[in-house]
Amino acid sequence: MKYVALILAFWFVGCGPQPRKDSTAPVEYYHVDPATAGRVTGVVRFAGKKPAARVISMNAEEGCEKMHPKGVPEEVVVLGKGGALANAIVYIKSGLESKKFEPPKEAVVLDQHGCMFVPRVLAIQTGQSLSVKNSDPVSHNIHPRPEQNREWNQQQSPGAPDLRRKFTAPEVVIPVRCNIHSWMRSYIAVTDHPYIAVTNGAGAFEWPHVPPGEYTVAVWHETLGELMQKASVAAHGEAKVEFIFREEK
Fold it and tell me: In whole angstroms, what is the distance from residue 203 CA to residue 97 CA?
């Protein structure tokens, strides 16, 4: 009986309720040392003839047609002086794997305005809030279709409160549709670090406060594809990159 009692005692110790691990331990985020930080600047260009923009007809929705009776040009390849390419996503693709960055507290805003998604392309960090607005007098439906994050699909009526969502995994990129208005398109790029940008009208971008290191920088465009190149950032240094998408012959 003594042996049975000992076995039962060990069984209860091994299989009984165990102390819970502390899940409230603070996350240790990486902080860039300003004494050694460098920067990355760059520009994205398109070499070739600008593709013709198709005109979107909105006659399927009376409310949208009233706002745009002549339709709206769909500006996919947006060019500036010297072939500067706007609305391209630029991000550090590799070189930061061992670092965890704190999500920004301010939300990124995606509006539904004039029966279009505004902006067409946006960048966000994992854990950062996405605020979805409906500024139109008609109902919309926002439907991101990710592969690494959870898919969601929600209607938003005129005057409805903003929708708040977050993405938990990096993903470049997530296409977004409106299931009510088939012409509405947007693209969301998600990274787990702050070194991501959408090029401006001059095709330019800039990342200050980059830790010294060797990186792969990538650029993505919805119809032109993806390009990559290496960038070496020295302490207090500046790495300059230039990407050129070329017209297919």
Answer: 27
Q: Where exactly does CATH 2.60.40.1120 map onto the chain?
A: 33-96+195-249
Q: Range(s) for CATH 2.60.40.420 in the chain?
A: 102-192
| Whether CATH 3.40.190.10 fits 33-96+195-249 | no
pLDDT in tens, 73-94: 998 999 999 999 999 999 999 9
Helices (H) and strands (E) in the chain, counts: 2, 20
Strand pairing report for 238-246 and 38-47 = parallel
CA angle 11, 14, 19 (to 5 degrees): 140
Which tokens hold the place of 33? 């040392």
102-192 carries CATH number 2.50.20.10 = no
The strand pair at 171-177 and 185-191 is best described as antiparallel
Inform me whether the pLDDT recorded for 99 exceeds 50: yes
List pLDDT tens digits, range 189-219: 999 999 999 999 999 999 999 999 999 999 9
Residue indicated by tokens 């919805």: 222
Nearest to 119 by CA among 87, 78, 164: 87
Strand partners, 4: none
pTM: 0.86
Contact 95, 218 (CB under 8 A): no
Mapping DSSP to helix (H, G, I), strand (E, B) and coil, where does residue 17 land? coil
61 secondary structure, DSSP code: S
Q: Please give the Cα distance from 62 to 191 (Å, whole number).
A: 38
